[in-house]
């Protein structure tokens, strides 16, 4: 899965998603980051595969965007995904962390 394929898939779910960390905390937001190119060999050629994270910050416990992101990531056969939720009790933010590998 190329970085462009990752971007295309995520933008289709959340058109406001950004690549890379943001300090914006005025409203709910989403960003993704590629962290490591994975070794993937097929037909003696290295194909592009990435470990990437999708971060969703929200103050809504029933955030529909977090649900849509999980549904899209699970539905794509090229992606394996793990979902963790963290809380910033001082600021009131819910942090959905989608750890993914895209092949």
Features of the shown structure:
single chain, 103 residues, alpha+beta, 5-stranded mixed beta sheet, two-stranded antiparallel ribbon, 2 helices, 7 strands
Task: Give a short overview.
This protein has 103 residues and is of the alpha+beta class. It contains 2 helices and 7 strands. The longest helix has 12 residues, at 64-75.
Structural class computed from helices and strand pairing = alpha+beta
Helix run count? 2
How helix-rich are the residues, as a percent range?
A: 10-25%
| Number of extended strands | 7
Q: What strand line-up does the widest sheet have?
A: 1-2-5-7-6
Overall, the morphology is elongated
Mean pLDDT: 91
Largest sheet: 5 strands, mixed
What is the end-to-end distance?
A: 5 Å
Would you list the SSEs in sequence order as H and E? HEEEEEHEE
Radius of gyration: 14 Å
Q: Low-confidence stretches at least 5 residues in length (pLDDT < 50)?
A: none
Strand content: 35-45%
Description:
- With about 100 residues, the chain is α+β, with helices and mostly antiparallel strands.
- About 20% of the residues lie in helices and about 45% in strands.
- The chain contains 2 helices and 7 strands.
- The protein has a 5-stranded mixed sheet, covered by helices on one side. A two-stranded antiparallel sheet has the order 3-4.
- A hairpin with a 4-residue loop joins strand 6 and strand 7.
- The longest helix is centred in the last third of the chain and has 12 residues.
- It is elongated, with a radius of gyration of 14 Å.
- About 20% of the residues are buried.
């Amino acid at each position: 899965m190329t970085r462009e394929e990752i971007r295309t898939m995520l933008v289709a779910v959340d058109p406001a998603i950004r690549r890379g960390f943001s300090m914006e905390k005025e409203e709910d937001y989403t960003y993704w980051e590629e962290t490591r190119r994975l070794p993937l060999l097929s037909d003696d050629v290295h194909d592009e595969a990435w470990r990437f994270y999708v971060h969703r910050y929200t103050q809504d416990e029933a955030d529909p965007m977090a649900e849509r992101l999980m549904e899209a990531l699970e539905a794509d056969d090229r992606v394996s995904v793990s979902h963790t939720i963290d809380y910033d009790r001082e600021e009131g933010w819910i942090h959905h962390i989608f750890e993914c590998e895209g092949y």
